[in-house]
Amino acid sequence: MIEKSPRVFGDFLGVCTPFAQTICIEKSVKMKPFMDKDFLLDTPTARHLYHDYCEALPICDYHCHLSPKEIYENAQPTDISALWLSGDHYKWRAMRSCGVDERYCTGDASPREKFQKFAYTLQYAIGNPLYHWAHIELQMYFGIDTPLSAATADDIYDRANGVIAAGDFRPRTLIEKSKVKVLCPADDLAYHKKIAALPDFDCKVLPTFRPDKALNIQAPDFADYMATLAAAAGMEIHTVDDVIAALRSRAEYFHSVGCRVSDQAFDVPPYAPAAPEQVQAVFAKALAGAPVTEQEAQIYKTPVLLALGKLYHELHWTMEVHIGAMRNNNSRMFRALGSDTGFDSVDDGRVARPLSRLLDAMDSTDSLPKTILFNLNDKDNTVLATMLGNFQSTEAASKIQYGPAWWFLDTMDGMTAQLKSLGNLGVLGKFVGMETDSRSFTSYGRHAYFRRILCALIGRWVEQGWYANDDAVLKEIVQGISYNNAIAYFDFA
């Protein structure tokens, strides 16, 4: 580290230019250890809040993509590549950006080769949360604190696999060791029922209701899905009212299996009210296999989503709304690999007005459920953080929530920006906190990452004199955001 004399010409950015270096004085400063127990905790208050109040708390993972089938079958992974690289499009995306051939991502390369290519990629992923997540997981689950790189890949691969071979890395064991008390994966109700009947598993695994396929009228398989939905609901579907009735039937069945959360994703929130005959004409067009325009899609989605909101309110569910993903951009790779394989990005559609009108339409009929709004484009941080206050009520503390930084935003900067936006414009102390949004059973290090970032931010605010150093209130706030608020908000207790 370099300590400079009083600022000179050319040094106005606080960095020694070649000219200014002539009067810079080098001082030996002890470098911080690599990702040690105080990683990110840059003040005494942050360290106190994290280690004393947050670190040992359990986890409520209210939005994830874990497989209920894998949870129930509970198979031991063969190696760390199976645990880490199978299905993880975050890692695949980074590897492709490093010029790694597809056979090492989704192809037929050996597990060791895939791990070597990921390790090679990781050493260049400076600034990417993947770098921190991978090392947190190595420490948490394998007791390995060696930085992962191309040079250390083989050694860490062998050491990690030795830990797996000697230990229990089955999904339910990893969930329990991670102190996960509630998780809400996708909907394979047959396995949800089997999991619920397990006598010795200390975690509630509750289904999430995801009606996207019924809403996505522009999808090429929409008509086929209507036949699937009709069969599942035990009825025929000919009209939009039939769609709504079938979705109600399915939601009530999900409720009986423990579901309390719904999730729907949009590039932009739909709101295009139209006469019933217009809505039916659009629906008939889609069933016949004809292409549907974006405006027509909004016309169909609006009454269906309003009906779903009313249903969620009746069931006392929480409605999650994920906004801003532009999916399957690479048509060639979509044809080769399908969706959720790492070819999605951030959309830049206008959000504020349709979202306002949608929430207002539900609120006007007293049918607005508890709602969590997630944005994927950080241009919308202020839009969502200010939207909350328009529709709060006494039904729940912060009934309308600003969801945690999600997907491309769950970086150190993205999480900090989301926390600051909510702190600046809402009530941060009632935030429901982090979820993994993950397909990996070792991804719970992301909660530790989030909690460290949270405590670091609040610690700095306290030590700068911006918030009172009231230990009892600070404890309530950080424990609430880390765990307690979510349990209360979702009625998971």
Outline, from the CA principal axes?
A: globular
Helix content estimate? 40-55%
Based on CA atoms alone, the radius of gyration comes out at 24 Å
How far apart the termini lie comes to 50 Å
Low-confidence stretches: 1-26
Number of continuous helical runs: 20
* Major sheet description: 5 strands, parallel
Task: Tell me the quaternary state.
Answer: single chain
Across the major sheet, the strand order is 6-7-8-11-12
Overall strand count: 12
* Estimated share of beta-strand residues: 5-15%
Alpha-beta content class: alpha/beta
Chain-averaged pLDDT? 94
Give the SSE map.
Blueprint: E1 2-3, E2 25-26, H1 44-54, E3 59-61, H2 68-73, H3 80-84, H4 89-97, H5 111-122, H6 129-142, H7 153-166, H8 171-177, E4 180-183, H9 189-196, E5 204-205, E6 208-209, H10 212-215, H11 222-233, H12 240-256, E7 261-266, H13 276-287, H14 294-315, E8 318-323, E9 325-326, H15 331-337, E10 345-346, H16 352-364, E11 370-375, H17 381-387, E12 400-402, H18 412-425, H19 445-463, H20 471-489
Parallel strand pairs: 3-4, 4-5, 6-7, 7-8, 8-11, 11-12
Antiparallel strand pairs: 1-2, 9-10
